[in-house]
Amino acid sequence: MTKSSAHVSVNNYQMYINGEWLASDKEQKINVVNPANERVIASVPKASREQAKEALEAAEHAQPGWEDFPPIKRATFLFETAKVIRRDKERLARLLTSEQGKPLFEARLEIEGAASNFEYYAEFARRIEGDVLPSDNPRQTVMILRLPLGVVASITPWNFPSATVARKLAPALITGNTVVTKPSSNTPLSTIEMVRLMEEAGFPKGVVNVVTGSGSDVGDELVTSKITGLVTMTGSTEAGRTIMSHSSIHLPKLILELGGKAPFIVWHDADIPWALKCAIWARFWNCGQTCICSERMYVDEKIKDKFVPAFVRMVKDLRLGDPLGNGTDLGPMVSREERETSMNFVRKATQEGDRIIIGGEFPVTPDRGWFFEPTVIEDVKQKSSLVQDEIFGPVVPILGVDSFDKAIDYANDSKYGLASYVFTKDSTRVLKAMNRIKFGESYINQVGPEQLQGAHTGFRQSGLGAEGSKYGLECYTQLKTCYVDWNDKPALPYLFPYRDKK
Ligand code: NAD
Prior knowledge:
7-stranded mixed beta sheet, single chain, 6-stranded mixed beta sheet, 15 helices, 23 strands, Aldehyde Dehydrogenase, Chain A, domain 1
């Protein structure tokens, strides 16, 4: 195994296992490409399964010592991590944009969000709460404790490579677990840099480890190992399903934050100029590659003829270009494959007779990079794949609806159930939407992103468990009930022998 003390040399990044920076033991690499110009910007090791195993063993070895620290001491490492992330915010944001393609403005917000996750969960140090309950028996107490699960395998996607990993590492660590994290091969650099900052923040060796490699190989090793106590994965529903099935061998706990197909309902009584601004952003931020992005719009028939042209005019004004440049609204998509997937939705819609009112092409300029014109499609059917399947790119279908109840029925007619949006000023409609729309989040007269204190969770195939909030924290703990007797002369009426009992 190749060892070194640095995490990067000439952009050859390394993995972090048991406090050491390592290359692949098979000397294999994965290239990281800048989606805005298609140039290779760095490489990361392609880890072997054996290296993933070593990382798990290191985390297992470090866990009892980490659990022994009082949470308030564990919190000091998380606070320090937040501090050094903020110190390096600009550098991290530029790196994030270079590997993922989002506009620098959004990347800065994401880095700020990552730092805030560490602070938010550090503040739970004195609030990892159990229960003390009365017993059914005299002089006994029932206590429910929250214990760490042990080793957490964290698996993250490419669309928010800094925020998603921070949202997993922070609650896992404050509750006394140790972690092996695996980023997406499209965007591994942001995670490696975050772990380097965690090393600087002083985390003891083995508490945080990062391995890089494919999901089906390295990811699968993390998921199927008997060392792993919890798998927390954010990604596609398809991969979540595979993880659920493969992990059944040792049954670790699972948090799965999966795909979405957010409905965006606009009613005639809404603040329409505001709804338009929100609709544009909710679909096109991060070039449409966000799990809570608006993926289908349901517009009240009464306003559709005015709303849709106004929406299209605003789409025309979006500035597509260099994500590091000033004033860019949309950068490229993350990869050629993702762009192709979005284009396939457009091709299919065209074949089915849907009407593309703007976009639908790869732009002529910039002439390199995986850019995609923001696209709006009308006359779409509810049962079409454009409305039923996750697009995850800058393409939005718009449907007219003639009743609010029908809009809710259409919204719920989905295998996904993550985020939803409703714009109306009528309080009865607001309450109806809150109760009847079966999605884990509803943004009402407002857009995301989700906030730290909110529970990020989904109905149906959008996942299991939660992230963010105290409920997200609880998912990283194992309940343990203790029945404690404090009788001087203990006695229970139902013990053996039964011969004198009726
Ligand atoms: P993906 O499922 O392709 O990959 C996500 C991660 O899982 C990657 O690190 C990948 O290597 C790993 N992986 C894939 N197969 C695996 C397996 N069999 N075993 C172990 N690990 C495996 O997803 P992606 O393309 O990176 O991200 C886009 C998807 O993520 C979209 O569907 C989006 O909606 C979803 N997402 C959901 C949320 C949420 O909070 N619900 C947030 C962001 C993204």
